Each structure stands twice: as C-alpha cells, then as structure tokens.
C-alpha cells in the first residue's frame, strides 16, 4: 500500500481481498490495466473529482461530448476556429456546431425520447429525476430545469422500455452487475419505489467509487458499503438498506430473491466465462426480469495498443446463457443507438419462463 492509498483504506482492503479471489471476480483483460490507472488517479486527484478524471471518462463515466464523441480536442478546435475565420458573422451555424461538439444535441435527442415514451402515471417514476452533481462532473445538461448526464439518460431510456412491459408491477429488489458510478441506484432511489433494495456488484475500484457516489446522493445511512459486509458469510437481500455496493466475489454470498437484474454495457467488456458465471447467480436468485444493454456485435478484440477483449460476446450469446428466460423485446432505436460505423448498442428485455 503506497502512501496515497492510506487516504482510502476501504479501497485498499477491497483491492487486497480481490487478490485471493478466482479470476471470475478479478478484472478482465479489458479492465486490468485501467483499474490500476483509476486507483492512481483517485489517489492523486481525490475521489471528489472522479467524474472529471481522464481514465474514468474513458471507461465508466460516459459523455456525449469529449471524449465520448470520438473527437479529440485538437480536431474540434481546428474545425471551430476554421469556421469562425471563414464565416465570422454566421452566429446560428456557430451555435449549432457548439451544440453538436458539446454533446448537447445528442443529449437533447435522448431526452426527447424519454419524454415521449415514459408513462408518468406508472412506477418507477422517471419524470421527476434530476441528477446530482457529486463527483465534479465534466459534463451535465439541463432540460426542463432538471440535470442529466449521459449515464443518467442511458438508464432512464432503459427504464422507460422496461415500464412498457411491467403492467403496473414494480421491481423493488434490483441487482446490477457493473453499475458504473451508481447512476441506476440514484434513479431508483428517487423513483417512488416502496421498500427498495438496489444492489450493485462490481470490482474495486469502481465499486468504491459507486459507494462513495451513492452515499453522497442517497445519504450514508441508506448505503451498505464493503467495510460493512466484507466479513459476512451470508448476505440476506431483505436485510440490506435502500442501496448496497458489494464486491464481485460477494455475489456468491447473496441469499434471497430479486425482481430485476440489470447490466448496461459492462458485460461486453468481460470474457464469456465470467459473464456465464454471473448469469448463473442471476438465475439462482430468481430474477423475474432481465434488462441488458450491450453491443450487438460485441466489443473490439484486444490487440497491440488497443484495449479490447479476447473473445467478444454477441447479443445472442446472452440468450444462450439464459435458457430459463424468454426474449420479450430487443431494441436499438429509439432506446439504444447505432454508431456512425454501424455498430448497435442494443437493449434486451427478458422475462422468466
């Protein structure tokens, strides 16, 4: 443990405990190097700034503008500066370019889909949500007086799709694997759900970031952290508070039933045997519904100088790993998206047979 890590003893403890776990619960090849970089940046700059740190923005704090747009700052400056020089009085086109490169236009498009698709009379309530600014976000947009990040709108669109199929039934016990910095827990915590139990399973350091964020937005008294559960041999879901963040290997200790299982984007960054193990526990815990969002074509392959996976998981692979479930809907537009180079970020909604 270096000197800086002493500032975060719980993160240090979780990272040390992870070393003795099966490779099923340690960072995959996609996340191995990134995890160390994330720890280094948190120690150097503080967890209070996690939503503006470079590695986090590349891996689990998504943005519509830089860097999520695929542009780099030099390219944007070149285009904008050139346009201003060629058309110095073109105010409206300049504003349009600014909105495009900032990500505002894309965010507004997602917000319009949300407003058009969400049934405000049905739980979970999405129309009152406004994201907090904990973590010093580098990007956040305001619509109708409420704040949103790309992470928030990703989840809100997924939940809008989910609500179409619930028929008034409300999932009160929700398990997520790879929950980023905890956005889904923040949304559900303000959605009017009675007796909510949101459980986020993740590897440290992202699990540490999520418990920090959820403690900030929901209150420390409403969040169970790794320090509180690390020594438990068995973890009863019904005894947990509104939100809990557990480390990956603790999924084996969970006992009870869940209503909804969610995975957004992180399964595509894991190897198939890791995903298969996690889904076996989802089945064991009796999830009634499953909501997934991942790349239909799978993540890019790992190669020299390029972060990727050894074996990509395709959409149909998830269905094969869940023989006890039937596919209800698969959706790219409007609730997911298609990339400019033809890849599909696809939502899958499944129901237990």
Annotated CATH topology: Rossmann fold
Q: Terminal Cα separation, in Å?
A: 48 Å
> Averaged pLDDT, please?
96
Dominant shape: globular
Oligomer: single chain
Contiguous runs where pLDDT drops below 50 for at least 5 residues: none
Gross CATH architecture: 3-Layer(aba) Sandwich
Q: Number of folding domains?
A: 1
Can you identify the CATH superfamily? Vaccinia Virus protein VP39
Run of helices and strands: HHHHHHEEHEHEHEHEEEEHEHEEE
Give the percentage of residues in beta strands: 15-25%
State the helicity in percent bands.
Answer: 25-40%
Largest sheet: 9 strands, mixed
- What would you report as the Rg, rounded to the nearest angstrom? 20 Å
Supply the helix-strand structural class: alpha/beta
């Amino acid at each position: 443990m270096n000197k800086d890590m002493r500032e975060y003893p719980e993160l240090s403890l979780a990272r040390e405990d992870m070393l003795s776990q099966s490779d099923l619960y340690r960072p995959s090849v996609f996340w191995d190097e990134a995890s160390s970089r994330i720890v280094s940046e948190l120690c150097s700059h503080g967890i209070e700034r996690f939503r503006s740190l470079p590695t986090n923005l590349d891996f689990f704090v998504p943005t519509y503008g830089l860097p999520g747009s695929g542009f780099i700052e030099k390219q944007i400056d070149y285009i904008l500066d050139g346009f201003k020089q060629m058309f110095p009085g073109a105010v409206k086109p300049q504003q349009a370019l600014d909105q495009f490169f900032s990500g505002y236009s894309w965010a507004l498009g997602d917000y319009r889909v949300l407003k058009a698709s969400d049934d405000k009379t049905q739980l979970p309530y999405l129309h009152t949500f406004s994201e907090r600014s904990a973590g010093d976000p580098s990007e956040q947009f305001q619509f109708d007086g409420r704040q949103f990040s790309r992470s928030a709108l990703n989840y809100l669109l997924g939940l809008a799709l989910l609500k179409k199929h619930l028929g008034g039934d409300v999932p009160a016990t929700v398990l997520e694997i790879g929950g980023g910095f905890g956005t889904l827990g923040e949304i559900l915590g303000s959605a009017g759900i009675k007796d909510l139990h949101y459980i986020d399973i993740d590897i440290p350091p992202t699990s540490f970031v999520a418990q920090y964020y959820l403690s900030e937005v929901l209150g420390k008294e409403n969040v169970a952290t790794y320090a509180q559960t690390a020594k438990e041999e068995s973890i009863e879901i019904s005894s947990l508070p509104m939100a809990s963040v557990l480390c990956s290997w603790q999924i084996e200790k969970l006992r009870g039933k869940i209503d909804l299982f969610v995975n957004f984007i992180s399964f595509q960054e894991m190897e198939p045997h890791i995903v298969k193990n996690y889904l076996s526990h989802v089945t064991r815990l009796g999830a009634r519904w499953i909501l997934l969002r991942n790349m239909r074509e799978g993540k890019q392959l790992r190669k020299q100088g390029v972060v990727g996976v050894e074996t990509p998981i395709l959409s149909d692979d998830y269905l094969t790993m869940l023989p006890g479930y039937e596919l209800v809907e698969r959706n790219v537009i409007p609730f997911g998206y298609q990339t400019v180079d033809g890849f599909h970020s696809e939502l899958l909604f499944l129901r237990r047979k």
